[in-house]
C-alpha cells in the first residue's frame, strides 16, 4: 500500500478562529502536510506527482489517496462530495485515507463517509496524540477526551476503519502515559495505529515554546524501548501504520535522530528479532 499525500485545500477550526488561531502546538504552517505538493491544487496532478515520486519499479502497487494536511472533513458537504469523488475517478487510485479531527464529524460528514466506505477502501485518521488531560491542553488540541470518544464511536458504529495517531516524547509524559495511550486504543475497536516521535520543527508554536522553556528530548534508545513496550501491550490485530515520524530535515531542530528515520526503524526491527518479541505478547484480553 502506497499512500500519496495530497492537499485538498482544507483549513482547520483550530487555525481559522472557530476554536483558536494557534493550531496544535507541534503543527507546521502546512498543518502536518509538509510532504504534500503545495504548488498545485489540481488533485490529479498532485497524485501523479506523488505516484512518480513514491512508486518503485517491478513492484505491484496499491495506491491510496491521502488527504493529509489540516482537517479534511472541515468543509461544505458539496465540496467534500466533489473532491472525494474526483479522487475516486482517477484510474490508479484504490482507496482513500482522510486525516481529520474527532470534532469535525457532523451528520453530513458521516453520511458522506458512510457512502464513501461502501464504494472504496477507506480509512479515517484521527490525532489522539495522548489521553493525558494536561497534555491535551498543553498541545492545544482544541477538544477534550469525551469529544474524541464520541467522534471515534461514530466512525466505528458505521464500520469505518479508523487509524489513531499517538506521540511519544511530549513534555512531562513518561512510560505510564504511553502505555495508557495503548490501553485506550485496545479498548476501542480501532483498526490501525500510528506512533510518532515528538520532533520540534521550525515555524511551529512548539519551537517557540522550546526556545523559552527547554525540556528534555527523548534519546533514540529510550524512544525505541518505549515503542517496543507499547507494541508488546498492543492488541495483536491492530494494524501498525507507523513507528516513527519525520518532517523536512532542514527544518527539524530536535531531536537530530528524527532526520534518520531508517536508523530508528531498523534498530526496532533488530531488537524485535533478537529478543523474539511480537506485537501483543503482553496484551491482556478483557474478561
Q: How is the topology of this model organized?
A:
Layout: E1 2-6, H1 43-54, E2 63-67, H2 77-88, E3 93-100, H3 107-119, E4 121-129, H4 133-138, H5 145-157, E5 161-168, H6 175-187, E6 192-197, E7 200-201, H7 205-212, H8 220-233, E8 239-242, E9 252-254, H9 261-274
Parallel strand pairs: 1-2, 2-3, 3-4, 4-5, 5-6, 6-8
Antiparallel strand pairs: 7-9
What about the largest sheet? 7 strands, parallel
Mean pLDDT: 92
Structural class estimated from helices and strands? alpha/beta
Gap between N and C termini: 35 Å
How many DSSP helices? 9
* Total count of strands: 9
Structure description:
It is a single chain. The protein is an alpha/beta fold. It has helices at residues 43-54, 77-88, 107-119, 133-138, 145-157, 175-187, 205-212, 220-233, 261-274, and strands spanning 2-6, 63-67, 93-100, 121-129, 161-168, 192-197, 200-201, 239-242, 252-254. The strands form two sheets. The chain has a seven-stranded parallel β-sheet with strand order 1-2-3-4-5-6-8. A two-stranded antiparallel sheet has the order 7-9.
